[in-house]
Amino acid sequence: MPLPRTTGDLQQFLCAINWTRQGIPEYKRLTGDLYAVLERAMVLAGTPKKQKLNRFLLVDAGWSESDTACLNAVRGALVNMVPLAHPSQTAEVCLYADASQDYWGAVVTQIDPSELQLPLEKQNHRPLAFLSGRFAGASSRWATIEKEAFAIVESTRRLEYLLLRPRGFHLYTDHRNLVYMFDPYGSD
């Protein structure tokens, strides 16, 4: 696949891979710089319409070598896309959510109920979906606990079709205070 030449080509590429975003871990982080170039191009063109964007070369929108590296990383992620499993009614569903300073992410997996007692590294999790996002504007100034909580709340909101089930789901986070907030009477 050749490199995009125009900003319209970049828009078409981003729209096409958007359909596969749930199978690409860290999608938002990987594509962030490409979307920034596209946004600059839309300002240049005065519109998001592809017909006008095709008139602008990527270099006109500030395309650089780091953007080429970013595009190649996205292509690599697309080639190595994680195959998603089909939800099973007999499996246990697990949600892993985390946040960093700039990004948040989540993965929903399913596991055979008998494997829940095994150590985490010996469990055979089959991914059902990946989500990620970027903290921008006011959200970039949130405290760590708010960012961690946002990753959980946003993931459950957007993936409720996988998580709402008679047996519920298992939530995993690395933030101890959130464990208490979501289950104040649970055991340690």
Automatic annotation (TrEMBL):
Q: Which stretches make up the Reverse transcriptase RNase H-like domain? A: 90-184
Q: Name one GO molecular function term.
A: endonuclease activity
InterPro entries in UniProt = DNA/RNA_pol_sf, Rev_trsase/Diguanyl_cyclase, RT_RNaseH, Viral_Replic_Matur_Polypro
Spell out the Gene3D superfamilies in the cross-references. Answer: 3.30.70.270
Keywords associated with the record: Aspartyl protease, Endonuclease, Hydrolase, Nuclease, Nucleotidyltransferase, Protease, RNA-directed DNA polymerase, Transferase
Q: Which domain of life is it from?
A: Eukaryota
> Does the keyword field hold Nucleotidyltransferase?
yes
Q: Name one Pfam family in it.
A: RT_RNaseH
SUPFAM superfamilies from the UniProt entry: DNA/RNA polymerases
Protein name per UniProt: Reverse transcriptase RNase H-like domain-containing protein
GO terms (BP aspect): proteolysis
